[in-house]
Specification:
mainly alpha; globular; fold of a uncharacterized protein from magnetospirillum magneticum; about 60% helix
Length: about 200
């Protein structure tokens, strides 16, 4: 039976995109207007994309992730080292995407609990089958969209530190950084913090 879960395939636009996200976080911290933001993205190609359409698509995804957070978070993205920026962006991506959030809570957590050593593509395929019962839109996704989503999600997990580099996709011990834990606790985002933590 379908529910009101609103899954989106916008994750195909990119993984954590650390370099580009630092740029967008800087613009948010500086409080640039919507018109100036678009000018920087499209005309000046501040994200260094191959086409204006690609730049707009990526900028929209990154901004929609970051805008759900606050200036403390944006500062960690812009100024933090690779590990801190990666986890800060993971937080934003998980908060923004119900699909990614449910994958962590329902699929990835199960893999850890079963003490599996690798994250196999079949886990993603089975997850999408289960998603179809929660949101009819999933059944409308093409096979190429499903594969691109898997690629983006697995890349996010690799960048954040849950899994090693492909082709092994070895599951690794994941520890939420103190800065991230403190930020989420201060922000009343305990449910989000729990989503990140693995057994």
């Amino acid at each position: 039976m379908s529910s009101n879960v609103r899954y989106s395939a916008d994750l195909t636009a990119g993984s954590l995109k650390i370099r580009e996200s630092r740029i967008v976080a800087d613009l948010l911290l500086k409080g640039v207007s919507d018109d100036e933001f678009r000018n920087l993205v499209v005309v000046k190609n501040i994200l260094q994309m191959r086409s204006p359409a690609s730049a707009v698509r990526l900028a929209k995804l990154i901004r929609s992730r970051l805008i759900k957070m606050n200036s403390d978070h944006w500062g960690m993205v812009r100024d933090g080292d690779q590990s801190l920026a990666s986890q800060a962006l993971l937080v934003a991506a998980v908060k923004h995407s119900a699909l990614l959030r449910d994958f962590l809570n329902l699929a990835l957590r199960t893999e850890y609990r079963l003490l599996h050593t690798q994250l196999l593509p079949a886990v993603w395929s089975q997850f999408l089958v289960e998603c179809e019962s929660r949101s009819h839109v999933v059944s409308q996704w093409s096979e190429s969209t499903r594969k691109r989503l898997r690629s983006s999600v697995f890349q996010i997990l690799s960048q954040a530190g849950y899994v090693g580099a492909r082709p092994g996709n070895e599951l690794k011990k994941f520890v939420v950084l103190p800065e991230i834990s403190d930020y989420l606790s201060r922000s009343g985002e305990n449910t989000l913090l729990q989503s990140l933590q693995m057994p």
